[in-house]
Amino acid sequence: MNNNIFVQDYDYVLNQEGMPKNDFPHHWKGEKNLYCCGLSRRGLFGVSMDAVAIADDIKKVVGEKKNK
Q1: Phi and psi dihedrals of 26, rounded to 5?
Q2: pTM (global) more than 0.85
Q3: Whether the Cβ atoms of residue 14 and residue 7 lie closer than 8 Å to each other
Q4: Which pLDDT does position 1 carry in this prediction?
Q5: pLDDT per residue as tens digits for the range 33-48
Q6: What distance in Å separates the CA atoms of residue 23 and residue 37, rounded to the nearest whole number?
Q7: In this structure, are residues 26 and 52 in contact, taking their beta carbons and an 8 Å threshold?
Q8: What gap in Å lies between CA 30 and CA 34, rounded to an integer?
Q9: Which cofactor(s) are needed, names only (predicted)?
Q10: What residues contact residue 47 under an 8 Å CB cut-off, 6+ apart?
């Protein structure tokens, strides 16, 4: 049974199985600045890697908006 069935409609980041559309290591970033964390199947280490990557990307996006 698919445990991610409730998030299948998030076409910007997840596929029909409820898993990230993008391959590792860029699986955490979807379109329109939508992120997913912890779906890399790499345990807590994977969640940590995702969280750091997402935080770095948010910092980059915010910095770009400030410079406009």
Answers
A1: -105, 25
A2: no
A3: yes
A4: 46
A5: 788 888 888 899 999 9
A6: 13
A7: no
A8: 5
A9: FAD
A10: 37, 38
